[in-house]
UniProtKB/TrEMBL annotation:
Residues 11-223 form the Glucosamine/galactosamine-6-phosphate isomerase domain. Catalyzes the reversible isomerization-deamination of glucosamine 6-phosphate (GlcN6P) to form fructose 6-phosphate (Fru6P) and ammonium ion. Belongs to the glucosamine/galactosamine-6-phosphate isomerase family. NagB subfamily. This is Glucosamine-6-phosphate deaminase. The gene is nagB. One of its GO terms (cellular component) is cytoplasm. Its EC number is 3.5.99.6. InterPro entries: Glc/Gal-6P_isomerase (IPR006148), Glucosamine6P_isomerase (IPR004547), Glucosamine6P_isomerase_CS (IPR018321), NagB/RpiA_transferase-like (IPR037171). The active site is at D66 (proton acceptor), D135 (for ring-opening step), H137 (proton acceptor), E142 (for ring-opening step). Pathway: Amino-sugar metabolism; N-acetylneuraminate degradation; D-fructose 6-phosphate from N-acetylneuraminate: step 5/5. Keywords: Allosteric enzyme, Carbohydrate metabolism, Hydrolase. The lineage of its organism: Bacteria, Bacillati, Actinomycetota, Actinomycetes, Mycobacteriales. It catalyses: alpha-D-glucosamine 6-phosphate + H2O = beta-D-fructose 6-phosphate + NH4(+).
């Protein structure tokens, strides 16, 4: 795992966009996209670079981490529509090449298996973007999730329902189930990119990077991945014991210097 500590959230977004660009400039690639507040700044930077003529997404495709059960993909609060608002409607990617789990399936278990199969048929995900919760969850894999889990039905935590009520009008309107990629599915991506900003994520980042690999912190699965990058600001890095080493390693890594000069 490589850990990159940036001075602030804006620098996190720029650095993440630099990494995205190394994939987007390929002839084709498959991106894994996440919703939530943290990735938004990175998406805005990618849109800026697209509008400046620096990037094109038209030969690429994308898979989302999760989707509400019971919401059509065209529902205003579906994650498919959310990613359109935040990114894909502003760039030149084909809408038909942006995939999400089928939240309207009468058989969610089968829909989960079908989604995993679709990812495999696409050749797998090249770069998977991840956010992290204060309890260490990624996707909707809450603490206690199996480290080898697949895309499956999950029940939302009551706090998550309460937090999401602002988008729906009331807690009663929030779907209580989602289809989410499992930790095993996520781990099959060739490169994992986790972003975190703010002091509220500091303990989760410390547990992810320096704690034991355990279901109590689902994001700790990144420690077992052959190519995982964690990009955080100073606040989110504040509880890392080896922060000084991470800075030294990043400053002396030739490939990152090349990326930044590109």
């Amino acid at each position: 795992m490589e850990v990159i500590i940036c001075p602030d959230a804006e620098a996190v977004a720029r650095t993440a966009a630099d990494l995205f660009a190394t994939y987007i400039t390929r002839d084709t690639c498959t991106l894994g996209l996440a919703t939530g507040s943290t990735p938004v700044a990175t998406y805005k930077e990618l849109i800026r670079r697209y509008e400046a003529g620096e990037l094109s997404f038209k030969n690429h495709q994308a898979f989302l981490l999760d989707e509400y059960v019971g919401l059509d993909r065209d529902h205003e609060q579906s994650y498919y529509r959310t990613i359109r608002r935040e990114l894909t409607s502003h760039i030149d990617i084909d809408d038909n090449r942006v995939h999400s789990p089928n939240g309207m399936s009468e058989n969610p278990s089968e829909a989960g298996r079908a989604y995993d199969d679709a990812i495999k048929e696409a050749g797998g995900i090249d770069l998977q973007l991840l956010g992290i919760g204060t309890d260490g969850h990624i996707g909707f894999n809450e603490p206690g999730s199996s480290l080898v889990s697949r895309t499956r039905l999950k029940t939302l935590h009551p706090q998550t329902i309460k937090d999401n009520a602002r988008f729906f009008g009331s807690p009663e309107d929030v779907p209580i189930h989602v289809l989410t990629q499992g930790l095993g599915t996520i781990s099959e991506a060739r490169h994992l990119l986790l972003l975190a900003t703010g002091e509220g994520k500091a303990q989760a980042i410390a547990d992810t990077v320096e704690g034991p690999v355990a279901a109590v912190c689902p994001a700790s699965i990144l420690q077992l991945h052959p190519h995982a990058t964690v990009i955080v600001d100073e606040a989110a890095a504040s509880k890392l014991k080896l922060a000084r080493y991470y800075r030294y390693a990043y400053d002396n890594k030739p490939e990152w210097q090349q990326i930044q000069k590109a």
